[in-house]
Amino acid sequence: MRFLFYDKVVELEKGRRIIGLKSFALSEEFMRRHFSKKALVPGVIMIEAMAQVLGWLVIYSHDFRISAVMSLIEGVTVQPALQPGVTVEIHGEIISTSKRDSLGRAWITLDGRTIASLDRIIFSHFHKVNQEELINRFCYYSGMDKDIIKAQASQ
Predict the structure, then answer these.
(1) What are the pLDDT digits (tens) for 12-38?
(2) C-alpha atoms less than 13 angstroms from C-alpha of 29 in its C-beta half-sphere
(3) Catalytic amino acids?
(4) DSSP states along 77-91
(5) Helical pair 146-153 and 131-142, crossing angle rounded to 10 deg
(6) Other Cβ atoms within 10 Å of 112 Cβ, number
(7) What's the DSSP call for residue 31?
């Protein structure tokens, strides 16, 4: 089973930035009995959501010729009391990228207010990948048009 912590990608700029959306529902498995008195979104879920969205930007920016694995995060800030029933925007930016790794930052906003952030996140690159499979996964998970993504990847 795969756990996706974003619902779709709404903006994507190769080599620069990405914005995804996530609606946190009370029915999500990670909400079950996480806190005994009040349902709250765990901070680690917000961190993973930022990493997933930014990881796809890294892969997309390298034309789906690499896979990206989070290897370091620093400067994490997470609001402790996010309740289910809201939709947040997950933003990510690539600061620098090379053949071996990528450095980025990410943040989550709710109604224009930042509620979580990663000042520094590094992804290591792995080059033995199936490009077509990565494109298919990205389009399926992100709700993006496969023909558009394939055309952009071939440019």
Answers:
(1) 999 999 999 999 988 777 777 666 677
(2) 5
(3) 34
(4) EE-TTPPSSEEEEEE
(5) 140
(6) 6
(7) G
Spatial distance between the Cα atoms of 126 and 107, rounded to a whole number of angstroms? 25
In one-letter notation, the amino acid at residue 58 is V
Q: Which helix (H) or strand (E) holds 96?
A: strand 86-97
Domains in the chain with CATH codes: 8-146 (3.10.129.10)
- In the chain, how long is the greatest CA-to-CA distance? 52
- Bridge partners, residue 19, by sequence: 11, 91
CA separation for the pair 82, 42 (Å, rounded): 8
Q: In the structure encoding, which two tokens stand for residue 5, read together? A: 């912590």
3-state DSSP call for residue 107?
A: strand
In angstroms, rounded to a whole number, what is the distance separating the alpha carbons of residues 128 and 65?
8
Q: What is the pTM of this model?
A: 0.92
Instruction: Give yes or no for a contact between 97 and 103, defined as CB atoms under 8 angstroms apart.
Output: yes
pLDDT for 41: 87
Question: CB-based burial of residue 88 (10 Å sphere; 0-12 exposed, 13-18 middle, 19+ buried)?
Answer: buried
* Per-residue confidence (pLDDT) for residue 1, from 0 to 100: 39
